[in-house]
Write a structure and sequence with these properties.
Protein name: Transport and golgi organization 6 homolog
Number of strands: 0
GO biological process, one term: protein secretion
Shape: elongated
Structural class: mainly alpha
Number of helices: 20
Largest sheet: none
Organism: Cavia porcellus
């Protein structure tokens, strides 16, 4: 997505300190308190009063000469921004100011890093740690940024997602339910424009590596859901007129490109896991918690997630990403985590992964092309050294092996069984080798290759009902 215009040649940008920006963020995010003792005051009113009070407090301190540099920087970025920053809906005004401060933070961190010159290390004191880059955030500062990001996503992304797109905000937390009730969807700017702006600015802030890790680590799923809706949600009925159009076709195209960019950028098992959640969706209610009615994931989103998951699978190491994404997302934790043993024993998950891997995606030219690309990765699942990880992956490889052999026996024989048994076959088919090639010292198979082959065959047969089930479907 197009980034907001960069601030160039600004004296404020060169000298504004990180501490001052983070102090402004802390002020904006500070919890409110009510002096009223009335029991009639609601959480909704408390939230609205707190947001309004904090916005006023921010404007008050920015009038102080001590904060002049930050005010100049914020105003300059705000003037160049192409999105509406004020609204009668206080939640959007608050979100806008938080986004502006995050942009100030990102621009300042970029400039500090560019101007950093650590100098050469002193050879007399090699044990001394090198100086930290001035754009490094402390743990306390990271917590402040994380709080700001949480507010932006909760106030600026989640309320504007359609039913069935991502997890319902009102059923995530009690605070989420209050936010959903507070946000005014009828006020300007339009809800779709707010969603587009929030996603656009967050992606711009994420261009700084450390800020990007904070954003995608916790909020990747919500941002991806927003981009799916912005870029791929079909318009109902006839196409809107230019006056009715909220997003231009160019903006929708930018959203589609941004979605693919972040899917390529993040840890691939995370991308797989979030796409699976978007495709099926956790239980969420369409109306009230009493009815327990679940919103179905829209058909267009299911198709889109299926296509994107297939693209993840077809990438290098795509099989491992899919396996890790499903197992970790199902409660296994990171590979080898505390629940890995329980997950390894659950054959249902392995069956699910096997069905996914054995199904040729639409993006593939033919089943044979798909098997040729994917089978070497499946065989690699046998070779992980960590015990818990190996146990999980071996079960998946075994189940996939059998599933593929049943669905496409000849292809499985060509691209799974024959490569698996290749070292043994070379040893057994000595008679077929010309005598002229059998000079003393000729190595047919290395010890490592033969050992791995025997171990893989043992792993495969040990986890099936026997040799017959493995070999017969493959050999006919």
């Amino acid at each position: 997505m197009a980034a907001p215009a960069q601030v160039v040649g600004s004296g404020a940008l060169q000298t504004c300190s990180l501490d001052q920006i983070l102090e402004a963020l802390k002020l904006l995010l500070s919890p409110g308190g009510s002096s009223s003792s009335s029991l009639q005051i609601t959480k909704r009113n408390v939230l609205l009063a707190t947001l309004k009070s904090n916005l006023c407090a921010l404007e008050d301190i920015l009038k102080d000469p001590h904060w002049k540099k930050l005010k100049l920087l914020r105003d300059e970025i705000g003037n160049q921004a192409e999105w509406p920053q004020n609204s009668v809906d206080i939640t959007w005004s608050f979100t806008s100011q938080t986004l502006l401060l995050l942009l100030c933070l990102k621009e300042t961190m970029v400039r500090l890093a560019a101007d950093f010159n650590p100098g050469k290390p002193n050879p007399r004191t090699p044990e001394v740690a090198p100086p930290l880059s001035p754009d490094t955030l402390s743990i306390s500062q990271q917590k402040t940024v994380q709080s700001a990001l949480q507010f932006v996503v909760t106030l600026g992304v989640c309320p504007y997602l359609m039913a069935g797109v991502g997890a319902s905000l009102k059923h995530r937390t009690e605070f989420g339910a209050v936010v959903q009730d507070v946000v005014s969807l009828d006020a300007t700017p339009h809800a779709t424009r707010r969603l587009y702006t929030s996603c656009k600015v967050l992606l711009d802030v994420a261009r700084h590596a450390s800020l990007g890790s904070l954003i995608f680590c916790r909020h990747f799923g919500d941002i991806a859901a927003g981009l799916c809706q912005l870029g791929f949600c079909p318009t109902k009925g006839k196409p809107p007129t230019p006056a009715e159009e909220v997003l231009t076709e160019e903006e929708r195209t930018l959203a589609r490109g941004a979605l693919r960019d972040i899917l390529d950028q993040v840890y691939q098992p995370l991308a797989v896991r979030e796409l699976l959640i978007l495709q099926g969706g956790p239980p969420q209610s369409c109306t009230s918690a009493k009815t327990q009615l679940r919103c179905q994931t829209p058909a267009w989103l299911r198709r889109l997630c299926g296509q994107l998951l297939s693209e993840r699978l077809m990438r290098p190491s795509g099989v491992q990403a899919v396996v890790r994404g499903i197992l970790e997302g199902a409660g296994a934790g990171a590979a080898g985590g505390s629940d890995a043993e329980a997950t390894a024993a659950d054959w249902k998950k392995c069956d699910l992964i096997a069905k996914i891997l054995a199904s040729c995606p639409q993006q593939s030219l033919s089943p044979e092309d798909y098997y040729r690309d994917i089978c070497p990765q499946i065989l690699d699942l046998f070779h992980f050294q960590d015990k818990l990880t190996a146990r999980q992956f071996q079960r998946v490889a075994t189940t996939t092996f059998i599933t593929m052999s049943r669905e496409h026996p000849q292809l499985a024989a060509n691209y799974l069984l024959q490569p698996l048994l290749a070292p043994l076959r070379r040893c057994l088919n000595i008679a077929e080798i010309p005598e002229s090639d059998m000079v003393p010292g000729t190595i047919l198979v290395t010890e490592e290759e033969l050992s791995r082959c025997i171990e893989d065959v043992y792993k495969e047969i040990r986890k099936t009902s026997g040799v017959g089930e493995l070999v017969q479907p493959l050999t006919g």
